[in-house]
């Protein structure tokens, strides 16, 4: 019998994604980063240095997301 990842249950698929992510995280230097991504990171860093007060703390981010999606 041949197995296919598309035949996995949703929880099995989530576990597979988590396992793949964990594996990639063991050697992040091997994960390719595109030039456009490097450029975006550079622009965000410049913006952060120019506007340090624009940063939101994690608790504020969670509060905003929850208030937006809770009904």
Number of helices: 3
Strand content: under 5%
Distance linking N and C termini = 45 Å
Largest sheet, in brief, is: none
Radius of gyration over all CA atoms, rounded: 19 Å
> How many β-strand runs?
0
Give the helix level as a range of percent.
55-70%
* Overall average residue pLDDT: 93
What structural category do the secondary elements indicate?
A: mainly alpha
**N to C succession of SSEs:** HHH
> What number of domains?
1
Shape: flat
Could you name the ranges where pLDDT drops below 50 across 5 or more consecutive residues?
A: none
Molecular structure report:
The longest helix has 16 residues, at 10-25. The model has no long low-confidence stretch (mean pLDDT 93). The protein has 71 residues and is mainly alpha-helical. It contains 3 helices and no strands.
List keywords for this structure.
71 residues, mainly alpha, 3 helices, 62% helix, flat
Structure summary:
The protein is mostly helical and 71 residues long.
Topology, element by element:
Layout: H1 10-25, H2 35-50, H3 58-69
């Amino acid at each position: 019998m041949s197995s296919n990842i598309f035949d996995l249950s949703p929880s099995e698929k989530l576990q597979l994604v988590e396992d793949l992510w964990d594996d990639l995280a063991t050697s992040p230097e091997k994960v390719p980063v595109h030039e456009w991504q490097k450029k975006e990171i550079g622009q965000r860093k410049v913006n952060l240095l120019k506007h340090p007060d624009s940063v939101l703390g994690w608790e504020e981010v969670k509060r905003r997301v929850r208030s937006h999606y809770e009904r």
